[in-house]
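Notebook, p. 212. Picked up where the previous page left off. The plan for this session was modest: take the two constructs that came back from the sequencing core last week, fold each one, and keep the raw output in the notebook itself so nobody has to go hunting through shared drives later. Recording the first one now, exactly as returned: residue sequence, then the structure token string.
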Amino acid sequence: MSIKASAATLEVATKQNVGAAASKSQTHVGLNSGHIMPLLGWGTSQATGDECIKATKAAIEVGFRHIDTAEMYKNERDIGKALQELFKSGAVKREDLFVTSKLWTEHHPGDEVRPGLMDSLSRLQLEYLDLYLIHWPTSVKPGPKVDPPFEETWAALEKCVEEGLIRSIGVSNFSPEKIESSILPMAKIRPAVNQVEMHAHWRNDRVLKWCDQQGIHVSAYGPLSSPQTMEGMGKDVPNLMEDKIVNEIAEKLGKTPTQVLLRWGLQHGSSVLPKSVNPDHLKENIGAAGWQLPEEEYDTISNLPQQRYFTGSLAMHEDGPWRNYEELWDEKDVSEPL
């Protein structure tokens, strides 16, 4: 299916309402911008250099058409090189891909948004992005108020949409309160996506429900609990893929734990962005499509203990605007023992 939505494909995609469980045959979601997005995406945050180039090609080969990157990941140039080779070989067309990147904090000032975007487009060797997100609700300068205010950043993003450089815009790691208090009151173009941590150990139901009510699609990073990332951050948290209950369900259904967890995410109402550079794992991940978790197994996984893995310490500062967990996420830490 081409990412360039015709009336027919958009009608099919929007049969899944924002925040609604993906059906067995559902592969795309209709965004409030009028564009469609593949529900299964390839997360690239741990891929760089030749490894990233090879992985990009492998991801496209096994069927991924949604690529999620960011300036912060330092791999846009590698992805761009791989995409150009794929375009030239005829393996895939630009209009068949959905490419997401993200605006980093230093480019939040209004006059820096477009240059930041153009740098990403140059590295990716693309003329437009399908989706561009404010990566974190961070402030360029520490202090009691966000500086520059999110309204300034958002207005500049809207101009980039009007210019044809971006098709959809959104946010990442934003609480409902931060979207509602800053962006929604002034937005000419509503956020299409909020990309947040979401997996069976962090259902993020509060954000999912609010975004659903607002017509904002939720995209899940870390849908497998990101064990390698957590280990690299020195965090001792459970690996969901080794969970006894998940493995028992996988064995019963003839699937892998990875496929069960990704399928759970799709049925929970989000798109999912699993990370891998291993061709076999990429093929395994794409196998989350085309089947359905029975209700009993879905409910069992949904009742696993809850704990946020990515606490967002990089967005906190003792001088503000977000000094701690509660100020950043606008909620108390409700983590349970895992």
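Okay, moving on. Second construct, recorded in the same format:
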Amino acid sequence: MKIIRRDLVANGPGSVKMVPVDSDDLWYAYNLIAPGDTVLAVTVRKVLREVASGGRDAERVKLKLEIKVEVADYDKVGSVLRIRGKNILENEYVKIGQFHTLEIEQHRPFVLRKVVWDSLALDTLNQASDPAASADLAVVLMQEGLAHVILVGRSLTITRSRIEASIPRKHGPAIAGYEAALNKFFENVLQAFLKYVDFNVVRCAVIASPGFTKDQFHRHLLLEAERRQLRSIIENKSRIILVHTSSGYKHSLKEVLDAPNVMNMIKDTKAAQEVQALKDFFNMLSNDPARACYGPKHVEVAHERMAVQTLLITDDLFRSADIPTRQKYVNFVNSVKDSGGTAHIFSSMHVSGEQLAQLTGIAAILRFPLPDLEDIEM
């Protein structure tokens, strides 16, 4: 995220002008914009004009509108943030109080104004504008006849390409067609790899599959790189890692993120820290259940007793339209940090965030056992 102008008071009012550079930035903007904020941006609106013949003519007019946010919606596929609300800026085409939907896209500046920039909003803003934090991971999840090219960003997991092919059986008379079909499939995966994996952005690329498919594709990739002189692959072949998974489907991404050789490459990134924190929580839950809890009520009681060492919470909980609820969770995160604990805010667009959401979206690892928590109703 490119910050152009910053004019705000911590825990007070202010505005920030920013430009989203990639889809991760749009996700950060989605987490920053809350109902009641105002957003100023250039937009296009269809207006009706009277024409000399007495009829009406519709034309699209470019104008600057500021709307008071009622609903924000993030379109992951189209990489667009849609913000709906009432116009508060006098304009010859749009009256004050009329509804309008602003579409925020990559490389389009907008100004966000808040009555209160709380600590969570400031943290999100700092994370979004930190250039070192955009350490992505590219993953090619595959099995014979199926491959997914997935990019794991700071806060988003995006499937960039899905490649499917019908591959005949290896045995019997179809064996001649097997080699040709497999090579064609590998060529399609290679084209997707070249299109979506940019080694200037990603730390490493992982090729993952059950059996030997990953090794066969890795060999194909390096041979073709030498033959066609593909510099991006030749110069970065040490950053291509092979990992065993149970399938080529997207749910196996969890196994990729758990692999030690992948964790070493991305250990200081947000995604890796979330995966590790969730792993620690599940280990604690199975080995010493009195030192792990989940659900808002249990975690709050544990914090009242100063027992929370690590808090795990999804960003979904901060997007509540009810401002007191949002503020409650912001204060809760601050309180845990003030008492010496650590807080991990999980992105609901990551695999780890989806897992945490299944456990109510909030969980904690405790400093000391609290066996009586089980008696308290969730």
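Notes on construct two before I forget. The longest helix spans residues 175-196.
Flagging for discussion at group meeting.
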